[in-house]
Amino acid sequence: MVSMERKEFPLLYVHQHARGIVGWGAHRMAGQECQMYGIKHALLVTTGLKGTGIIEEVEGVLKKAGVTVTVFTGVTSNPKDQEVAAGTGAYLAAGCDGIVTVGGGSSHDAGKAIRIMVTNNGSDTKLRDFAAVLNPHYTTRIPTYKPVNIPHVAINTTTGTGADCTAFAIINDEELVYKLILVVPGVAPSVGISEPAFMRLQPPQLVAWTGMDAFCHAMEPFVGRLNLPVSHGTSLRAIKLLSENLRQGYANPKNDTAIENLIWAQFIASMSYNMGGGMGMVHGLAHMVSVIKGLHHGHANALMMLPVERFNAIACPERFKEIGEAMGLDVRYMNPVHATDKTLEEIERLRNDVGIPAVSLREYNFTEADIEHTVKWASNDLSMEANPRDMSHEHIRTIMRSCM
């Protein structure tokens, strides 16, 4: 039967966004926040941050507030399901009653996933049972989930994730070689804390990768087909801030003004997608590149951004024209198609300026078998739902081959 529904998406979902604390010395609020949420024994989840002194600093703040701390450093970039299971075991063995995460997206997402597992069957929980996919659509399963009510204080040390405030957790399923997008009620952290003093300790490469990740977080909801007005203004403001500050932050991570502006860019970009704008095929394909070859999530997004958006451009040239204006281009009197060309050129220039040139995926030993694995799994990735242009398996295959 032919559908008579006028709207492609009759129901739109605005997800929970965490409270935020931003500013110099913000990390000193972590102890007070733990007290407010009743955390007496925290599992501090981190990738380690060796040599920075950050973990020791945060531990001191928590202990001064009377919070017992068990440190779990078993998380790596692109957190894995086995790491989350180990963290869950550490949480239960220590008798913790809350989570504190310190780091970037990997630490925060691992902390969220640990909370999902503890809320359910502990270390026996299968995270793939909570994966948000398109078929069957994730919204049909959410009512069966137990809401997560374990408090979580997320302290951010990078300028691009947004994971300290969002209602999603991204975890590698090592057996399936697939990124699980976990969307469970209550999984957003209780509060996200952004500390500029920690972020200026980032190496330039990390500023670039996380900055381009934030750019995707702003761009994809703006051009996407979910078309939520709540995301439009935040997307354009984030793009403007990133265009004006990412080069400076990359060139000198101790440029305090640039770092402050990048913090706000990543914060409001996370609102764009988290509050209903969704993502798109850049994230859908980058998820697979990242999980197959271990690339940093932001790096993978930067590599996939232009091939995907050149494919998408004909679906929404007027939106790309607005992005160009936000980036400072004078495209007012150009038609949207020509303005889109200029916008994509400017995005490429920004990416190159921060040390991320276009590189063949063959340099990462990507193979034809990897492309077929990507086609199989990316087509059911939740990110694909909001992509502005319809895509088939053959479209995905063609885009991936163009990157080889």
Automatic annotation (TrEMBL):
Residues 208-403 form the Fe-containing alcohol dehydrogenase-like C-terminal domain. InterPro entries: ADH_Fe/GldA, ADH_Fe_C, Alcohol_dehydrogenase_Fe. Residues 21-194 form the Alcohol dehydrogenase iron-type/glycerol dehydrogenase GldA domain. Belongs to the iron-containing alcohol dehydrogenase family. Keywords: Oxidoreductase. GO terms for molecular function: alcohol dehydrogenase (NAD+) activity; metal ion binding. It comes from Geobacter argillaceus. This is Alcohol dehydrogenase/methanol:N,N-dimethyl-4-nitrosoaniline oxidoreductase.
